[in-house]
Every structure is written in C-alpha cells, then in structure tokens.
Amino acid sequence: MSDRAPQPVERQLPTEEARDLLALVREIAQREIAPKAAEEEDAGRFPREVFTLLSASGLLGLPYPAEYGGGDQPYEVYLQVLEELAAARLTVGLGVSVHTLASYALATYGSKQQQVEHLPAMLGGGLLGAYCLSEPSSGSDAASLRTKAVREGDTWVIDGSKAWITHGGIADFYTVMARTGEGGPRGITAFLVPADAPGLSGAAPERKMGLKGSPTAQVHFDGVRVPDGRRIGEEGQGFSIALSALDSGRLGIAACAVGLAQAALDEAVRYATERRQFGRPIADFQGLRFMLADMATQIEAGRALYLAAARLRDAGRPFAKQAAMAKLHCTDTAMKVTTDAVQILGGYGYTADFPAERYMREAKVLQIVEGTNQIQRMVIARHVAGPEDR
Fold first, then answer.
1. 32 is catalytic
2. Phi, psi of 277 (to 5 degrees)
3. How much is the pLDDT for 390?
4. Strand duo 200-202 + 280-281: pairing
5. Is the dihedral of CA 345, 346, 348, 349 positive or negative?
6. Looking at 16, 152, 370, 388, which residue is catalytic?
7. pLDDT tens across 302-321, in order?
8. Residue 149 and residue 327: Cα distance in Å, rounded?
9. Quick check: helix, strand or coil at residue 222?
C-alpha cells in the first residue's frame, strides 16, 4: 500500500459551525453513501432513504432561513457540502442541488403565508422536489414553453408536458413554469404543484449512459387543478423567477462537478501510487505525474471560481456572469479529469470494477443540465461584449 494516498480537501470555511457541518457531511458520505454507490448506480436504484436522512440532518435546506426549517448557511458553505456529497455519489449531490433549486422560487418569491404553510415540509420535512422548466420542444429556448395554465376563478388548470425532469415521477412537489399569457418570456407564471394532484403523472425514466440511479423523466399535466394560493409571484413573473433560480442552480452544478472531478483524481492518485511497472510506482513516471498535476490544478481553479461566485451572491452582489463561468469551467474540468483518470488506470479504467468509467459517464451530463455549456458561453459573452445585434 502506498503512503502517498490522496489528502483531504483543504477548505476555507467562515465559521466553526461550518467546519462541524462539513465534518458531519463527510461522515454521512463515507458511512451511508459511498459504500453503496457503485452497486446502486449499476442497479439504477434511487437512494430515497439517504434523502430522508439528509432531510432529518438538516441538509436539504441549507441556504434557506432557519425560521422555515432551513440551515441559514451562506452559499459558500452550502456549495462545499454539495461538493462532498457529489464526490461520494453524484446522484446524491445532484439530487440535493435540484431539490434546492425546486425550493428556490417559493423561498425567494413566495408570500409570507405561502412560506409558513409550505417551506417547513419542503426544507426539513422529508419531502423531495423537482424543477419543471424544460419541455420536449423547448430546452435551451425555455421562453418558448407550451405548457399552459388557464385560470378558472380561484383555480388554475394546467395542461402540458415537461421533459428532462430530475426526480420526475418520484418527487413530492414540482415547481412548474407554465404559460398564462402572451407568447415569450412575459407570459409565464410559476406554480407549486403537489405530486398527488389528480392528472399529474410521471413517464418511465429515460435510459441514460450515466447517473442511472437518478431518475430523469417527462412529467405530464392533464387538467391538473391548482389553487391560486399555489401561484408563486405575480402572473407573468415566472420566467424571471426561473432565470434567477438557474443562476444559483448553476453554482450547484459547478460544485457537483468539482466533487466528481475530485473523486476521479483521488482514484487516479490511489491507483498510480499503488500500481507498479518497471520496478516502481507508475506515479513516478513524469508523463503521469504531469497529468495528475494538471488535474489537480484545474480542480482547484474550479473550486476557487465557484466559491468566488458564491461569495458575490452571499454579499448580495450580481453574480450571473460568474455563475455561468463556474458552471462552464467546472463541468468541462470534470469531463477532462474523469477522462484522464480512465487513461491513468489504463485497461482497468475501462472496466466496471473500478469507478473511473462511471465518473466519466456521469461527468458528461453536467455539461448539459441547467443550461448547456454553449448557453453558458452565450451568457458570459453578453456580459462581456453586450447583447447580440438583432
């Protein structure tokens, strides 16, 4: 056994409470999540009991107010929790990020009455959320969504389908963007829809190359009736709510990507320091040493980028550009690092006996979800060079 095993991530945390929180997360990750990750991903099993544990441990509402069951933690801390969870199993880290995204609209734009009524169960009551924006014909062009909500007195009737929904079919509540007015972004409104609403159903999960334990499915709304008390924000405000949520959600994806990349680097270092060829560990060969150095550098750069964006957010300053940059850089880094990890393991890296190939398959989706990396480049360019001429 080599004495050059991967070292724990050195973290700069703002409080002693945050350090204790990260220690709790690592304990849960090492005891409850990581040991079953490979087997359960291979079986396509969603670990609902883990999310129940995370909820009971106060980890499903970290960035939201304590008065509603949240953790009152800054994004700087919450994102590092996500990173630790994703390093243990991406299905869990991504699931917590999506749940946080699904809770954002009500926590940020909901009325006091709505927050008192719904947030405690969403943040610490064992519920699991999903975020419904994309549709079969409107992914990157989300403003063209077709799902409709028609008002009948104090009730809205929702008809349509949403696509690529993480936790689709298993969530307890759905934050849904539906068209209530004119075409384009100004005619969209947000709703909080319970999973047991008559007419709401989930399709069979998509068959994916990775993240097999995390269900992704279409969600259908067939005359789903929702009281006006579950409308979030003003009529026509839904698209701006959705974009605001995605700015924060992109930071969650960035943190998950860094966690996945860190897990791949740790596996590559472990293997390279134990595997001997030509009488010495393969980590002694310069070609592999330089690969490991580049992997570590890109991970550290990604971590610094998402934390810088998080600190802007925590300070109440604009962070949309930095969130797009973090999502772009961190997910591209995850793809590169996991691919290099497979290469370092050689033939073993291509087998399911080692986690490197799973990491590589999982990394790919992070370049796609919550705005493809091509969309991130468009967002960044608009901040740098101004809007495109039309």
1. no
2. -140, 145
3. 60
4. unpaired
5. positive
6. 370
7. 999 999 999 999 999 999 99
8. 32
9. strand
